[in-house]
Amino acid sequence: MRYFALASDYDGTLAEEGAVHPDTLRMLERLRDAGRQLLLVTGRLLPDLKAVFPEYEVFGQIVAENGAVLYNTRTKGETVLCETPPEDFAATLVQKGVTPLEVGRVIVSTLDIHKQTVLQTIEELGLELQIIFNKGSAMVLPSGVNKATGLHAALKRMGLSVHNTVGVGDAENDHAFLKVCERAVAVANALPSLKAKADLITIGESGKGVSELIRRLLQDDLASVPARDGRDSLVLGNAEATMPRMPVYGTNLLVSRTSEGEPTPVIAHLMGQLADAGYQFLAFDPRGAYQTFENAVVLGGPKRAPTTDEVLKTLTSTGQNLVVNLLGIPMQKRPAFFEGLVPRLREVCVRTGRPHWIILDEVHHLMPVMQRAIEDGPVRGLTGAILIAMQPDELPSSLLCSLDTIIATGSKQREALQKFCAACNQPCPPFSEDRAEQGEALLWSRKEGGSPMFFRYGPSAAPMPPPSA
């Protein structure tokens, strides 16, 4: 399962004229009972939402007031996620005749015909507030607060990632949270500007469209819905060379290099791309080669062995990238360390979908325990794997056949590709020459076939483009 959560807007998306159809509610219950998490992301105030939608507890978390308030339907806990505007702001609007005026824990909203008065009042009082428009309404919130910030807060509490989340909406204020979801869906009645950014536009309107989306989630986990702009793939290389893309999800990669123990620039490049795009990785570092990577927490060192508990706690509680330094664990004890870690890591993957990638350097030293772990998962098809070895023939054929992509660096690219293909009993694609002298790496995918591609990596490598909906 790739998508662990569905985040839905309320008015115009889930509900028509404020009400959710019983058929839509049944589909939500079906998705929840199948093990997915449901989040409601709305501009409404909580009391108002509860009044019009008494079945709100079908959702585990509710992001209300357009990202300013978080409500846990299980614990009944309500959290204000930002600073509230001063009381004199709403009072001044009342004095100026702004009506209707709705005041929540944070949000202050009215009709967009009053936008100039609202803006003038913000300037007069010297406040750091913003106006967000939503189908005729003008919602005032602290600067930087929107449905995306609220969704991030809710997912963090649930231990989930936006990269395992599908979002669905219909209006202007839905742009922000759909933009950060791995798949963005617009119902048929959505604004044209939202449809233009969506990965999927439903045939049905409002609740019928949400039900349609749920059926597709249950049917194939949206495998038939590609990202509109390929944003869930890594861009390899820099602007001076051809820049192939590698899918982030479902890729199991072998990186072949020329000498043991050398830092691997292409791995640093991949780690940087993953970090820039917000995909969580767990890297096992046998020689202390990745200790200076800026966007990761490092556990362990030459004088202190990392523990299974702290690895799992860091992964789940912080959501950060993690490098596990194995120098404090003697070589002969490392298989036992992984024997204890892998089953518990598998549990985390099944529950949260994270980490999105596992990186294993010098993986041949961990056979056969890691062979069993990788061939079985940690969760097959859920977590991507990057295995780093000197040459493919250092690894068992059965393990190599569970991998689908190879990146070969150094002076023996042709030899590495030939060994990879031979282990999988398939013809080796022809290419003219090793490209090591030009500082390029070879990329070839068994899934896509065709000829190998080459890309240049290093300090000038192009950054991952920011996700867009």
Which helices and strands occur, and which strands form pairs?
Layout: E1 5-8, H1 22-33, E2 37-41, H2 46-52, E3 61-64, E4 69-72, E5 77-80, H3 87-95, E6 102-103, E7 108-111, H4 115-125, E8 129-134, E9 137-142, H5 147-158, E10 165-169, H6 175-180, E11 183-186, H7 192-195, E12 200-201, H8 206-220, E13 233-235, E14 245-247, E15 252-256, H9 265-277, E16 281-285, E17 297-299, H10 308-318, E18 322-325, H11 334-352, E19 357-361, H12 369-376, E20 384-389, H13 397-400, E21 405-408, H14 413-423, E22 440-445, E23 453-456
Parallel strand pairs: 1-2, 1-10, 2-3, 10-11, 11-12, 15-20, 15-21, 16-18, 16-19, 17-18, 19-20
Antiparallel strand pairs: 3-4, 4-5, 6-7, 7-9, 8-9, 13-14, 21-22, 22-23
Helix pairs in contact: 1-8
Protein model, in words:
This protein is an alpha/beta fold and 469 residues long. The protein has three domains: 5-82 and 145-220, Rossmann fold (3-Layer(aba) Sandwich), CATH 3.40.50; 87-142, Hypothetical Protein Ta0175, Chain: A, domain 2, CATH 3.90.1070; 233-456, Rossmann fold (3-Layer(aba) Sandwich). It is 30% helix and 21% strand. The chain contains 14 helices and 23 strands. The protein has helices at 22-33, 46-52, 87-95, 115-125, 147-158, 175-180, 192-195, 206-220, 265-277, 308-318, 334-352, 369-376, 397-400, 413-423, and strands spanning 5-8, 37-41, 61-64, 69-72, 77-80, 102-103, 108-111, 129-134, 137-142, 165-169, 183-186, 200-201, 233-235, 245-247, 252-256, 281-285, 297-299, 322-325, 357-361, 384-389, 405-408, 440-445, 453-456. The strands form four sheets. A nine-stranded mixed β-sheet has the order 17-18-16-19-20-15-21-22-23, with helices on both faces. Strands 5-4-3-2-1-10-11-12 form an eight-stranded mixed β-sheet, with helices on both faces. Strands 6-7-9-8 form a four-stranded antiparallel β-sheet, covered by helices on one side. Strand 19 (357-361), helix 12 and strand 20 (384-389) form a beta-alpha-beta unit. Helix 1 runs parallel beside helix 8 (206-220). The two termini are 21 Å apart. 45% of the residues are buried.
